[in-house]
């Protein structure tokens, strides 16, 4: 049986998941792939800690270059993360003619165009299913299953930390700060949660999906990103009253010559299947001309789910090696010559429904002034709820709008803010129906 | 640009969906696949009806053998259905060295082992993503994405007709007969709905999934099949009172040396994501060692969703042709030599929770006799509801059990039936927690 040699860079949690699957499920992989996916090297600066996985002599090494320079290693699995040494190692592996598998969304979102071009020049495969949606086969679905479709839109819950925190706030009425602390205690959030809770990680993933779905160069910098740090139990409670849940969504829409791409907390109705995706789970809905709406749902992160996606990529590459079919599918879904520069629309140009909460001064005429400004800017109010409960000297006025243009909404909020009739920064949450 | 010639057998609804995608999305397919998927022939005995798709001169033919014998046609798409002429044409295409794509679950479930062996002998690809779950990439997910997993179980809503009917009964309190008539009127059910409503179609699909997931030969005949024709609004209303919905589920469980495989109406709790899959939609949950639980959700049938899956298969095969990688993935997921005869357990050996409804005679001691028989057979009752409302001279007694063995349950129901204290056949619906 043919042997394909695999080297894993980084023996942290996710690296250990890959190693465990390659070791423990080696027999089942052989019976499916028809080759032996042999774990030749695992490189980590820490070669002492016991990860509970028995490795043969000489497999665990501290010098990554030993595997990168080894002519017998066919596939390099980068599990280090970040945009520093990981990028350097990946580019060296590619230059040395090795196929590369990674889960590193930050790296692909930031430097993917360069890496993909390097892989093309050196005739190697570069695979990254685990970078978006963990074990869910979102990249394979977009690149392969939906190949005959024109994709209209994608909507995803792509960050388990944020979904865990929002679920806690929704179900237990916790504040953001308390929910974050709990998420950290239970291992669902990092010590520095910035990349997750500010939406950056979700943006990395959407940048990758956009390229695959719309045939555009990877473009991270133009995606509008708003995280969940300002979400309060009060707004989530109001959302529930209106029949909505609040989720951090990645939303992209194909608008022909441009793409709408944004990450923000979003109210979605309870009959939207994404509203039932709780805890740290992930899900993505894809709308396309032939399939209509389709959804994938599963664990978006974690040692074994991520390991599963990485091993799926290893097997795909192994099958290409065995049949001489490297480069069988273009890395970014479209043939390189078909990839275009598609602009991402400024957020000002999006049109959607809005939820506003104003902390209004408790005196006559306030509601009329607010609604006057909205009306002057063509923002039509679908419903208003002014509740009696005065908190911190102000009355909460909640409004839901019909479809409005973001630029008008921003202008209106600035004017309302300047009136000195609202006591705090107005709250704005976008609604997707 | 390389041209891959495609011939479509059968220009009915689904065949027309494939043709439409190949024609209308030809440019996007080119920009992704890097080849021209050229529709060379469409064969149908009806060459007169206008399907609203413009085909070139000489493309629509009535003689299928013209494309089967044409040395330039690379891929044959069988969209005729059934186990008669479709099988004959597929085997001829394979013998002539052509790759084959089909959506024909009945044929694969009944004759798949033979067809797969023929494809192997003749070195051609045989693809059938559209046979299970319509546009959902369930076959690709099991064969490729989950390749590193040991699959523990699969649970699916795999028949849109049944799901549509059960949704109608649930939401509108219709009888089965009325809901079926509505489904027929709206095009969700065939004039002869037997294969759908008796569970046969769902069994075809589960037989295919079982082979892929567990490395077994396709085995349709041993799957336990019970349809939805006896489901009443009363039982669905009771289910709702207990917090359950009733769905026709395909359930399979890997029990090591054997497989549990059954199709039957099933009560599932509202927090099970499958319970929210309404109308004609399909969904499948897969449980596996690395991914945990994962779900796919989408349109399981219909012209364009099915067309999308077929075109995905055509593109996969085209990519294999272009890179010389035919046979890159074994048709049934496992290498032929790794496929085993895995027995399907008799339904008597399953263990699950049960819902019973007895139409009990309205006299003293009935409940004690029923519960006595259940107790003697080791069937432990979780809850009993005896409602006052007497209908047709009988009182409904509803019971939910703890985990019990099917053989014991059947024995108990026979004994209860023989007591002459129940006026009608007891109702049994299995519950999955």
From TrEMBL, chains A, B:
PANTHER family xrefs: HOMOSERINE DEHYDROGENASE
Record-listed E.C. numbers: 1.1.1.3
Residue ranges of every copy of the ACT domain listed in the record: 355-430
Keyword annotations from UniProtKB, A to Z: Amino-acid biosynthesis, Methionine biosynthesis, NADP, Oxidoreductase, Threonine biosynthesis
Binding residues for L-homoserine: 190
Single Gene Ontology MF annotation: NADP binding
Protein name, per record: Homoserine dehydrogenase
Enzyme class, first EC level, given as a word: oxidoreductase
Pathway(s) it belongs to: Amino-acid biosynthesis; L-threonine biosynthesis; L-threonine from L-aspartate: step 3/5; Amino-acid biosynthesis; L-methionine biosynthesis via de novo pathway; L-homoserine from L-aspartate: step 3/3
Family classification: Belongs to the homoserine dehydrogenase family.
PROSITE patterns cross-referenced by the UniProt entry: ACT (PS51671), HOMOSER_DHGENASE (PS01042)
InterPro entries in the cross-refs: ACT-like_dom_sf (IPR045865), ACT_dom (IPR002912), Asp/hSer_DH_NAD-bd (IPR005106), HDH (IPR016204), HDH_cat (IPR001342), HDH_CS (IPR019811), NAD(P)-bd_dom_sf (IPR036291)
